[in-house]
Design goal:
Layout lengths: L1 H15 L6 H8 L3 H7 L3 H25 L4 H16 L6 H8 L1 H28 L9 H18 L3 H19 L2 H15 L2
Helix pairs in contact: 1-4, 4-5, 4-7, 5-7, 5-9, 5-10, 6-7, 7-8, 8-9, 9-10
Length: about 200
């Protein structure tokens, strides 16, 4: 039952917003009593915390699956961006924006995990791109990792509408890639942008 509650709550939080969904809404949607939810979760914050952990794990599992497909470094980033679009396109407001605004403590914990995971993932992608001669070999990898996650987190923290956040994230990806790309990388980037626009 606990897993079912988390799954339903996560779905509702992402679609309708962490703040607007109440324990009553979740109970009503599941045709169970609110008392049943409180058997597993002491309050709404505890439920949100578990829900965000589940989303975090799900995102990184799917990202790992994309990385295992061994696309080139630039296509890999576009495939990951496509995944985010599919996962969050039904959300009205950005989940990250809502968390930061209404549940800053939960957001702080999530941010710590995300920065560590993203730094590792971005670093691997940049090294892969350099090896494939898609990114310039002389770039300062640590600086570019920091530039990119600062851009992405700033967009998500400050953009209320999820559709707008997704659009800005795509522009940030293009900006990030152009800054690192070799002439060969620019050709691959243009190809990916064309594919993205035709979707």
């Amino acid at each position: 039952m606990k897993d079912k509650i988390i799954a339903k709550a996560t779905d509702m939080f992402l679609k309708l917003g962490f703040k607007s969904v109440t324990m009553d809404d979740i109970a009503c949607e599941m045709c169970i009593s609110k008392k049943t939810i409180y058997k597993f979760f002491s309050n709404k914050e505890a439920l949100i915390e578990e829900a965000t952990e589940i989303v975090h794990e799900k995102i990184h599992t799917v990202i790992d699956e994309i990385i295992e497909k061994d696309f080139n470094a630039i296509q890999e980033n576009f495939e990951i961006r496509r995944l985010f679009k599919e996962m969050f396109q039904n959300a009205d407001t950005s989940p990250v924006y809502q968390l930061k605004k209404h549940y800053p403590e939960i957001y702080g914990k999530l941010l710590e995990n995300e920065i560590q995971d993203c730094s590792e993932m971005f670093g691997k992608n940049i090294r892969k791109g350099i090896a494939q001669e898609l990114y310039r070999s002389e770039i300062n990898i640590e600086s570019y990792i920091q530039f990119y996650y600062t851009l992405i987190f700033s967009i998500n923290e400050n953009t209320q509408l999820e559709s707008e956040a997704l659009k800005l994230e795509m522009e940030a990806l293009e900006y990030h890639t152009r800054a690192m790309a070799t002439p060969k990388g620019i050709i691959e980037l243009e190809k990916q942008l064309l594919n993205h626009k035709s979707e």
